[in-house]
Amino acid sequence: MTDPYSILGVPKSADADEIRRAYRKLAKELHPDANPGDKAAEDRFKKVSAAFKLLSNAETRARYDRGEIDGEGNERAAFHPGYAGAGAARGQTRAGGFEDISDIFSDLFTDFRPRSRARKGADLRFRLDLDFLDAAKGATKRVTLPAGRTLDVRTPPGVTDGQTLRLAGQGEPGAAGGPPGDALVELRVRPHKYFSRDGDDVRLDLPVSFAEAVKGAKVRAPTIDGAVEVQVPAGSSSGTLLRLRGKGFPTKGGKRGDQIIRLLIDLPSDDAALKSFAADWQPPKGYDPRMKLR
After folding, report:
1. Of 53, 35, 51, nearest to 2 (Cα)?
2. Per-state percent for the chain, helix, strand, coil, to nearest 5
3. Which of 126, 266, 249 is nearest to 199 (CA)?
4. Are strands 201-208 and 259-265 parallel, antiparallel or unpaired?
5. Where are the strands (E) in the chain, listed by range?
6. What is the CA radius of gyration of the chain?
7. pTM, two decimal places
8. Which residues contact 288 (CB under 8 A, 6 or more apart)?
9. Which of 16, 190, 277, 289 has the fewest CB atoms within 10 Å, counting from its CB?
C-alpha cells in the first residue's frame, strides 16, 4: 500500500512547511533533468510528486487520514457513498496554507533551466579610405556605423594600405552581460599623383631641365612635409637618384624612412637652339651611353 507520508519521509503530524520542504528536497534530487536516463529516479520522482499533490491539499489529506481514500487518491469501498471519487479530490483547490505545486515546479525548472552564458558582442567590420598624406602623417576620420552611430577613428602615422585597426569595445553589444565586440577598420590608401611608397621610403620622380642636369642647380622638390630645396649634381642623367634622409614614413622605432628622388631630364618638344647644339656636339672619346647593355 502506498503511504504518501512515507514516500516524503515525514510523520503524519508534519505541518504544511515540513511537507513542502521535504517535497522540494526530494524533487530536486530526483528530477529527470538531474538524472538523465535514470528510470528508477524518474519513477520515484513521479511518486514523490503524487504524494505531495495529495498531502498539499487540506481536504484530500484529511480524507486520507480518515481512511476515505488510499495513497493514490482512490475511493475506498467502505467510504464510496457521498463522495465524488479521486477525480474530485484531484480537482480541489489548494487550502490550509500549502504552496501550489505549480509554484514549486516553477522554482525547480528555474533551477534546471540552462543559464544564458555571457557572450562577447559581434565585431563590426568596415573600410576607411585615406589620402596618401593622411596615411603618412596620421589623421582623425569620422565614420558612420551600420546602426547609424558615428565613430571618430584616429589612424596613427605610417599606416599601410590593407592594414586593419582594431578598436576595442566599439562593436556590437554583448549578450547576457558580456563585453561589446570590437570595430575592425580596414584601411585603403588612395594613390598620390606624384608620390609612391616603397616600404618606409617615399619615391618621387623629379623632372629637371637639360641645363639643370648638365650644369647642376638647386631646385624645389615636394616632400610629405612640404617643399624643400635639393641640389641637382652637375652632369646628372635621367635616372640619377638623390636621397633625402628622414623624409619618408614613420617607423615603429620612432625613426623615419627616406625620400628617394629620381631625376628625369625633360626636354622641350621643339627647341631650335637645342637642336643646333645637338647637331654640333661631339661626344668625348670612348663615350657610349649604352655601354652597360653590352
Report:
1. 51
2. 30, 25, 45
3. 249
4. parallel
5. 124-130, 139-144, 150-155, 164-167, 183-189, 195-198, 201-208, 217-221, 228-232, 241-244, 259-265
6. 46
7. 0.57
8. 294
9. 289
Neighbouring C-beta atoms of residue 26, cutoff 10 Å:
20
CA count, 13 A, side-chain hemisphere, 180: 12
**From CA 67, how far away is CA 79, in angstroms rounded?**
8
Residues of the chain with confidence (pLDDT) below 50: 81-98
Within a 10 A sphere around the Cβ of 120, how many other Cβ atoms?
15
pLDDT at 79: 52
**pLDDT value of residue 160:** 96
Q: What is the pLDDT of residue 100?
A: 55
* Digit-coded pLDDT (tens) for 192-251: 999 999 999 999 999 999 999 999 999 999 999 999 999 999 999 999 999 999 999 999
Name the residue among 249, 252, 131, 241 with its Cα closest to residue 201: 249
